[in-house]
Write a structure and sequence with these properties.
The protein contains two helices and ten strands. The protein has about 190 residues and is mostly beta strands. It has a four-stranded antiparallel beta sheet with strand order 4-3-6-7, with no helix packed on it. A four-stranded antiparallel beta sheet has the order 5-8-9-10, with no helix packed on it. A hairpin with a 5-residue loop joins strand 8 and strand 9. The longest helix is centred in the N-terminal third of the chain and has 14 residues. It is elongated, with a radius of gyration of 22 Å. It starts with 13 loop residues before the first strand and ends in a 6-residue tail after the last strand.
Length: about 190
């Protein structure tokens, strides 16, 4: 609810999903959270996920008829996507979030980064997914290196980094040296393998 910037009063129905939703204490806690709202128990909790998967399959196949014609299915990224960066004039490494979690896909975002050391000849771009501000505490997806950077003092070379998450969940990350136009990138499948 917090991520969606919603309040419990914005929720019309509470649908129970999964076997644990049968536990009386879980139901009691849900009713407390939703201020006494009646819980929807008309759908078998074990079958609810299968119903959702069937709706998703129909939407992906383009076979949308009947009640599904008025149904809008939005896919979002479950975890933030970003790259490891070094704090300016510090040794602390952090996660520079480029695509925040719950962003609707497809989505394309860009960020700008620079070098950390004087006369750096290459820059490594390490890609992560997760919610920790410390990159290494997140899921490491992969990395690539851009070589042949013209010699310059730190913070002078500039790089545009593009994150492109397509409708199929394929993530493409590329970096471009803005002074030379040199580009390099990496691609990850939906399951985040290269």
């Amino acid at each position: 609810l917090e991520d969606a910037k919603m309040d419990t009063s914005d929720v019309d129905d509470v649908v129970l999903v999964g076997g644990s939703s049968r536990i009386p204490k879980v139901q009691e806690l849900l009713q407390e959270v939703f201020k006494g709202k009646e819980l929807c128990k008309s759908i078998n909790p074990d079958e609810a996920v299968a119903y959702g998967a069937a709706v998703q399959a129909a939407a992906l196949s383009g076979n949308v008829t009947g009640k599904l014609q008025d149904f809008t299915l939005l896919d979002v990224t479950p975890l933030s996507l970003g790259l490891e960066c070094k704090e300016r004039d510090s040794s602390r490494l952090y996660m520079n979030v480029v695509i925040p979690r719950n962003s609707r896909i497809p989505v394309r975002k860009t960020t700008s980064v620079t070098t950390s050391y004087d006369y750096q000849e290459s820059v490594r771009f390490s890609i992560y997914e997760g919610e920790s501000s410390i990159a290494k505490n997140n899921n490491f997806l992969g990395e690539f290196t851009l070589h042949g950077i013209p010699p310059a003092p730190k913070h002078v070379p500039a790089f545009s980094v593009y994150f492109d998450l397509d409708a199929n969940g394929v993530l493409s990350v590329s970096a471009e040296d803005t002074s030379t136009g040199q580009k390099k990138g990496i691609k990850f499948n939906r399951d985040r393998t290269k």
